Amino acid sequence: MYHWILNRVLIKMKYICALLLLTIYLDATAEPPNRGFADRSVRIVADSDTIIKKRSVSAGISYGSDASFFGRTGPVKYQFLNTDVIYNTKSGWFVYGSAYKVLGSIPNVDEIDLGGGYVYHITPKFSGNISYTRFIFDREALIIKSASSNDINFNNSYDWKILKSGVVLDYLFGESHDFFMTITNTKYIETNWSIFDDKDYLSFNPGFNIILGTQNFVQKYNMNHPGRVDLNYNLPPIGPPIEVQKYAKHNSEIDMLNYSFKIPIAYNRPHYTFEFAYKYSIPVNVEGILRNHRESFYNLTFYYVFY
User: Fold this and answer.
1) pLDDT tens-place string over residues 207-217
2) 89-111 burial by CB neighbour count: b if 16+ within 10 A, else e?
3) I need a labelling partner for 1 at 20 to 30 A (CA). Which of 59, 83, 146, 277 fits?
């Protein structure tokens, strides 16, 4: 089984190589941003890509219009709030914790995440991180993510000056086992003028993402939440669980899952950031028991850095 999955990964790699070869030919002479928040560490809750180059603690809260899991959403929109706390060390190690509350759900807290990892910089332009996250869900949690309880994440990126390209690998395991590959291309831009005083500025980080992977988590989610995944958009669905075994083979295949465009706009000060982010998601190859469609997502984020 694992040899078959590996072969599927190698087949998909031709698309990734073509994308990376295309970005190699892009060139620019402008220098990259040089502010303290210009290239953020892992798991800061906003999307403005800042990095903390000293020992620090970051705390944030965000609101999302719908919960999305590797390009897939649940049978209804799940607006949510989440909080994050991250401790970064000078050496590159970090630990973090997150809590999620789906608005209108029964649990007081739907999900708690705990994890840690290491940030490394191979060259000034090539950096990455590796991390492990443990997901802890309430029994009544409705988000589709609840089919997986562990994630090993390997993230590498290269700054071409004109844009920043990255390849993110995720292996999720627990009640379901899935592999994902996310290809990202972003362009960080910040203003050279201030809003209220000389200590603030705006930043923009538009990006385009492609997600490939398996979809075993969908059928497991339906087994654990009988009747919640519906073919006819009757929400909430009624009746016995849908038979999902016939989709099992297809869900184990690595396939293109999602294309998305994202435009985060942030107001930054030395210790904190407010951010609004818009994302337009285009799911593809959606298997039969989950009827996802094109969707707009909105996120509001605030985080504060102590150092």
Assistant:
1) 999 999 998 88
2) eeeeebebebbbbbeebeeebbb
3) 146
